[in-house]
Design goal:
117 residues; mainly beta; four-stranded antiparallel beta sheet; globular
């Protein structure tokens, strides 16, 4: 059973930085892609950034130039470096994995990121 454990959320002032980490365990097959989504109160869960095979990354327009996604293939871990944080980045951030031959989605438990103005 694939499990995702996130860490690195917290409270930061606007303009500050945070780094999120997500480690996947129970991996037997290939991970097709990893990434991060976020959900603010009363809003839907939205894509933040993903990274697929070959290190090809994709970002939401709202975070381009501020956030960087990286992946450690040996550790089955994905990172999200978040710089120049804004209050509108406040949300619960969820780790996501597209796993195995069938492309099954797995989600972490979520980590709170709060950016104060």
């Amino acid at each position: 059973q694939v499990q995702l454990v996130e860490s690195g959320g917290g409270l930061v002032q606007a303009g500050g930085s945070l780094r999120l980490s997500c480690a996947a365990s129970g991996i037997i097959f290939s991970i097709n892609a990893m990434g991060w989504y976020r959900q603010a109160p009363g809003k839907q869960r939205d894509l933040v950034a993903t990274i697929g095979r070959g290190g090809i990354s994709n970002y939401a327009d709202s975070v381009k130039g501020r956030f960087t996604i990286a992946r450690d293939y040996g550790k089955n871990t994905v990172y999200l470096q978040m710089n120049s944080l804004k209050p509108e980045d406040t949300a619960v951030y969820y780790c996501w994995v597209d796993y195995g031959p069938g492309g099954t989605d797995y989600w972490g438990q979520g980590t709170q990121v709060t950016v104060s103005s």
